[in-house]
Write a structure and sequence with these properties.
globular; 5 helices; 8 strands; 8-stranded mixed beta sheet; Rossmann fold; alpha/beta
Length: 206
């Protein structure tokens, strides 16, 4: 499937993973486009599959300039609008189901910046977002965000974000953090644990 934004100038490639009777909906945002991140990255596939088994309809999409999505990489600026379009598409498809937002790495940072731009209070689960990176815009401050249930998931061996840095940032915005011991940035062999943490975060208020 596809959906459009920017007055039809950008078309985003997307796909749904849907159980027989979805009780929840999640939008899942992929890692950095310039580091070969796509909606079909192994962790994205595994988390979407596991969430689907837990009753989520999951919408994944490719950011602009990735795969069959048109446009070009906008260094995290236009990508915020991509998240907005995906959230709107998910809400239109399942208007009577609780909706949550998640992402991995660049996708986690961009999803959080979408929440700041739109003052979204959707439940949020961020998988290893970069706290300080010259490849992604800065994460939003507390005053930029509406109050919402937010959780970060990170491995204690992450190569790109430290537990201390993410814990400090989480505290500044009132978010929870879950540390997976023995995991790096890619969560090999721990995909189900990541998905369980995402599912718990997105349904915490239900």
């Amino acid at each position: 499937m596809t959906f459009r934004l920017d007055a039809g100038r950008v078309t985003l490639e997307a796909r749904w993973d849907v159980p027989d009777d979805p009780h929840f909906v999640a939008v899942l945002c992929h890692p950095h486009p310039l580091q070969r991140g796509t909606m079909t990255a192994p962790l994205m596939e595994a988390v979407a599959r596991s969430l689907c088994m837990r009753g989520f309809a999951v919408l994944r999409f490719n950011f602009r300039g990735v795969g069959a999505s048109t446009g070009s990489h906008d260094f995290g600026v236009g990508e915020v609008d991509d998240v907005a379009a995906a959230v709107a598409a998910a809400a239109a498809e399942y208007p009577d189901r609780p909706l949550g937002l998640s992402g991995w790495s660049f996708g986690a940072a961009t999803a959080l910046r979408y929440q700041a731009k739109t003052r979204s209070a959707l439940p949020y689960a961020g998988i290893a977002p970069p706290v300080a990176s010259d490849r992604s815009p800065a994460l939003p401050a507390l005053h930029e965000l509406e109050e919402a249930h937010r959780t970060f998931i990170v491995g204690d061996r992450d190569q790109f974000v430290t537990v201390d840095d993410l814990t400090t940032y989480a505290a500044t915005i009132g978010a929870q953090i879950e540390v997976l011991n023995g995991s790096d940035h890619f969560f090999y062999f721990r995909e189900d644990r990541v998905a369980a943490a995402v599912a718990d975060a997105l349904t915490a208020g239900e």
